[in-house]
């Protein structure tokens, strides 16, 4: 996703729920031009936010979360993004995944492994975890990976999941793990 500061990353990550990064990157330039700070987003008419983000899906919920989170950021944190997991996940629309993305990619803070659909799929296929619960998967993966590698580990799995280990037709013959992968669920 394209961003130039922690707030833009937070917004883009909230928008990425049930949406592709490509679509988010088409929406955010106009959104950031108009409402690129928590102060501006907090004052924005909700209908305007909805219209700008409509194509990301679930736009009414996302617009409400973005506006309310912006108000909270202004009122509680002087418009700054908290650099701790606890305060971040208290913001509307921000769960552990979004908080881990922001902390890791905007601040270099490894608060936990980002568990998205690709990390979930690969972790299950490789037999590292069982199940779909992102919090449980994060809890099980974190001790298996050195903390200093958490941010890049997520990036590697996401990239591999998009390019090779796809949900419907994994390209196992092109995978460097083919010999050792148990291919669970394939």
UniProtKB/TrEMBL annotation:
<dbReference type="GO" id="GO:0051539">
    <property type="term" value="F:4 iron, 4 sulfur cluster binding"/>
</dbReference>
<feature type="binding site">
    <location>
        <position position="181"/>
    </location>
    <ligand>
        <name>[4Fe-4S] cluster</name>
    </ligand>
</feature>
<dbReference type="InterPro" id="IPR005759">
    <property type="entry name" value="Nth"/>
</dbReference>
<keyword id="KW-0411">Iron-sulfur</keyword>
<dbReference type="GO" id="GO:0046872">
    <property type="term" value="F:metal ion binding"/>
</dbReference>
<protein>
    <recommendedName>
        <fullName>Endonuclease III</fullName>
        <ecNumber>4.2.99.18</ecNumber>
    </recommendedName>
</protein>
<keyword id="KW-0408">Iron</keyword>
<feature type="binding site">
    <location>
        <position position="165"/>
    </location>
    <ligand>
        <name>[4Fe-4S] cluster</name>
    </ligand>
</feature>
<dbReference type="InterPro" id="IPR003265">
    <property type="entry name" value="HhH-GPD_domain"/>
</dbReference>
<keyword id="KW-0326">Glycosidase</keyword>
<keyword id="KW-0004">4Fe-4S</keyword>
<dbReference type="InterPro" id="IPR004035">
    <property type="entry name" value="Endouclease-III_FeS-bd_BS"/>
</dbReference>
<comment type="similarity">
    <text>Belongs to the Nth/MutY family.</text>
</comment>
<dbReference type="InterPro" id="IPR011257">
    <property type="entry name" value="DNA_glycosylase"/>
</dbReference>
<keyword id="KW-0234">DNA repair</keyword>
<dbReference type="InterPro" id="IPR004036">
    <property type="entry name" value="Endonuclease-III-like_CS2"/>
</dbReference>
<feature type="binding site">
    <location>
        <position position="172"/>
    </location>
    <ligand>
        <name>[4Fe-4S] cluster</name>
    </ligand>
</feature>
<feature type="binding site">
    <location>
        <position position="175"/>
    </location>
    <ligand>
        <name>[4Fe-4S] cluster</name>
    </ligand>
</feature>
<dbReference type="Pfam" id="PF00730">
    <property type="entry name" value="HhH-GPD"/>
</dbReference>
<dbReference type="GO" id="GO:0019104">
    <property type="term" value="F:DNA N-glycosylase activity"/>
</dbReference>
<keyword id="KW-0479">Metal-binding</keyword>
<keyword id="KW-0540">Nuclease</keyword>
<keyword id="KW-0238">DNA-binding</keyword>
<keyword id="KW-0255">Endonuclease</keyword>
<keyword id="KW-0378">Hydrolase</keyword>
<dbReference type="GO" id="GO:0006285">
    <property type="term" value="P:base-excision repair, AP site formation"/>
</dbReference>
<dbReference type="GO" id="GO:0003677">
    <property type="term" value="F:DNA binding"/>
</dbReference>
<comment type="function">
    <text>DNA repair enzyme that has both DNA N-glycosylase activity and AP-lyase activity. The DNA N-glycosylase activity releases various damaged pyrimidines from DNA by cleaving the N-glycosidic bond, leaving an AP (apurinic/apyrimidinic) site. The AP-lyase activity cleaves the phosphodiester bond 3' to the AP site by a beta-elimination, leaving a 3'-terminal unsaturated sugar and a product with a terminal 5'-phosphate.</text>
</comment>
<keyword id="KW-0456">Lyase</keyword>
<feature type="domain" description="HhH-GPD">
    <location>
        <begin position="15"/>
        <end position="163"/>
    </location>
</feature>
<dbReference type="InterPro" id="IPR023170">
    <property type="entry name" value="HhH_base_excis_C"/>
</dbReference>
<dbReference type="GO" id="GO:0140078">
    <property type="term" value="F:class I DNA-(apurinic or apyrimidinic site) endonuclease activity"/>
</dbReference>
<dbReference type="InterPro" id="IPR003651">
    <property type="entry name" value="Endonuclease3_FeS-loop_motif"/>
</dbReference>
<keyword id="KW-0227">DNA damage</keyword>
């Amino acid at each position: 996703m394209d961003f130039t500061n922690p707030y833009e990353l937070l917004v883009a990550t909230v928008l990425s729920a049930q949406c592709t990064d490509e679509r988010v990157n088409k929406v955010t330039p106009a959104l950031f031009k108009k409402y690129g700070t928590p102060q501006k987003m907090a004052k924005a008419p909700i209908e305007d936010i909805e219209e700008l983000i409509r194509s990301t899906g679930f736009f009414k919920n996302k617009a409400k979360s973005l506006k309310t989170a912006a108000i909270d950021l202004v009122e509680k944190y002087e418009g700054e993004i908290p650099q701790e997991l606890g305060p971040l996940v208290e913001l509307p629309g921000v769960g552990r995944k979004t908080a881990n993305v922001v902390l890791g990619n905007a601040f270099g803070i490894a608060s936990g492994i980002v568990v998205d659909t690709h990390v979930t799929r690969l972790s299950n296929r490789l037999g590292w975890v069982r199940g779909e619960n992102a919090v449980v998967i994060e809890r099980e993966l974190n001790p298996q990976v050195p903390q200093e590698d958490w941010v890049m580990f997520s990036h590697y799995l996401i990239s591999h999941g998009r390019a090779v280990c796809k949900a419907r037709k994994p390209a196992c013959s092109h995978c460097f793990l083919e010999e050792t992968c148990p291919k669970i669920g394939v």
